[in-house]
UniProtKB/TrEMBL annotation:
PROSITE patterns: HTH_TETR_2
Species per Swiss-Prot/TrEMBL record: Paractinoplanes aksuensis
UniProt xrefs under Gene3D superfamilies: Tetracycline Repressor, domain 2
Pfam short name (any one): TetR_N
Residue ranges: DNA binding: 35-54
Domain HTH tetR-type, chain residue ranges per copy: 12-72
InterPro entries: Homeodomain-like_sf (IPR009057), HTH-type_TetR-like_transc_reg (IPR050109), HTH_TetR (IPR001647), Tet_transcr_reg_TetR-rel_C_sf (IPR036271)
Protein name: TetR/AcrR family transcriptional regulator
UniProt xrefs under PANTHER family: HTH-TYPE TRANSCRIPTIONAL REGULATOR BETI (PTHR30055:SF234), HTH-TYPE TRANSCRIPTIONAL REGULATOR RUTR (PTHR30055)
Domain of life: Bacteria
Keywords for the protein's UniProt record, in alphabetical order: DNA-binding, Transcription, Transcription regulation
Amino acid sequence: MYRRDRARLPAAERRRQIVEVTTHLIAERGFWGLSMQDVADGCGLTVPGLLHHVGSKDGLLLAVLDHRDEEDIRSVNEQAPASLRETCVALVRRNAAQPEIVRLFAVLEAESLTPDHPAHAYFNERQQRTVEMLAELAVDAQDPAALARQVVALMDGLQLQWLRYPETIDLVAEWELASAALFTP
């Protein structure tokens, strides 16, 4: 069925719209609760029109994840942090400003623990890259990889608490308190 009410957008802009709509829907429902019809409706497309841009539901998921990683890396790099501690503060501040994205990643990371999830390999590789990147910044640590894993665990745990109790938990303040102990020489 052809929809006359949909706006014609350049391919890059349409893809950005698809990623934004999908991001919102996954954060709200999880990947398994996501329907291609809901994404298509949110973008004013038909399902075949949506598939033209993303290929499949798995392709849609990976497009969302890749886009968010690119945005996060760009944002943190713009702040030019010089140390592990500064990098972590930049990440926590960025995450505090985008609860929907943090929720999206928390939901997907938990769902992807099962090997049959389409993002299982993505999150395994992302975890390894994150630990390696943070370990490279932990130049003064006795065991940089262990410190990097602890940083990730602390960030993830605090983010879950913040998402559950946003009205009473200040993510940045909680990070500053907890990281003071973590980074004490």
